[in-house]
Amino acid sequence: MIEFLIPLIKVILALVWLLLLTLYVADWVERKESAIIHDRIGANRASIFGLRMIGLFQPFADAIKMIFKEDFTPSFSRKFLHSLAPFLSFFFVAVTIAAIPFGDTIRIGSRIIKLQVLDINVTLLFVLAMMSLGIYGVILAGWASNNRFSLLGGIRGAAQLISYEVAFGLSLVGLIMIYPSLKLSSIVHSQGELLFGFIPKWGIFLQPLGFIVFLFAALAETKRVPFDLPEGESEIIGFYTEYSGLKWGLFMMTDGMEIVIVSTLMTTLFFGGWQVPWLQADGFHWPWGGEWFLASWIVVILQVLAFNLKVFFFCWFQVLLRWTYPRFRYDQLMDLGWKLLIPLSLVNIVGTGIIMSL
Question: In which region does residue 155 sit, left (phi positive, over 0), alpha (psi from -120 to 50) or beta (all else)?
Fold first, then answer.
């Protein structure tokens, strides 16, 4: 019974964390950050028992409103596929959270529990595969709407996601060469070592060019400004033009989840994951000498807290970019992917191989 309950509890906690963070990133953070940039107040009305708390309850109000909005399906659409598309997009992004390590391990009694739902030897491939399958939701939404503008948005989305997935995958090859594993937990453990005795062996220090390529490719995968050509928020072109109600809300939730998943991948692959500089299993070991021993449960809390703070920062950073830069033209978008990012990722792979062979 315990062997069944522990994975179930981990799945529930991971999904609750993902959905709550998505709600706040896609709604409250988006509104408040855009308001600050525009010199406005932003969301500050939704309250419970008179507690406004600068609009912190706004995401729940919007979620309730979305659930009860009219779900209109056009009579000319391909109804089954039209309804299936948002669920496909949502599902394939949501399951990727299972592969993300939130921390190392925690001991409860005599049992050691990994703070990760799915820890297989190819977790990185699992994440890449699930994120790639999300394209079917975009294509189906555009085609099943039976609307030429929606179809154009779906075609834009397919071309963009396929193009940037090439750079997305190639940017990680150099990282895998340095940390020879496709297991995310092993990659995070490898980043716990030190360079020159004091610099954390994080991917950002060993693969700066790979991180730059990964960052731009990942931003394109989220389909947000300046890479929002599939949606065209200021145009009538968008693969979800014919959607409303909860199904439209699922597409919005998917966009928000993609922000969170990209942030967790940046944290895990390039910024040490749950690693805290100079923090070992028994406490801090300072590079200038001396130790500060801590209880094991405090170490676990610090590791999980460090992971969350890094993820929060990258979520904020992506929202900042969305409200700072204008959209690319479509030819500029494709040129960036094929003519710049892919060649840079190949240069990174060759350069990494040369350096490792010296």
Answer: alpha
CA distances from 111 to 48, 56, 98 (A): 40, 38, 21
Q: Are 348 and 248 in contact (CB under 8 A)?
A: no
pLDDT score recorded for residue 43 = 84
Tell me, what's the pLDDT at 14?
A: 97
What CA–CA distance (Å, rounded) separates 230 from 236?
11
The per-residue pLDDT for range 266-278, each reduced to its tens digit, is 999 999 999 999 9
d(CA 66, CA 248): 9
Q: Please give the DSSP secondary-structure letter assigned to residue 149.
A: H
The predicted-structure confidence for 159-200, as pLDDT tens digits, reads as follows: 999 999 999 999 999 999 999 999 999 999 999 999 988 999
**Residues facing 280 on adjacent strands:** 283
- 148: Cβ–Cβ under 8 A, 6 or more apart, which residues? none
* CA proximity to 171, closest of 326, 330, 342, 358: 342
151 contact partners, CB below 8 Å, separation of at least 6: 142, 143, 145
Residue 279 backbone phi and psi in degrees, to 5:
-95, 120
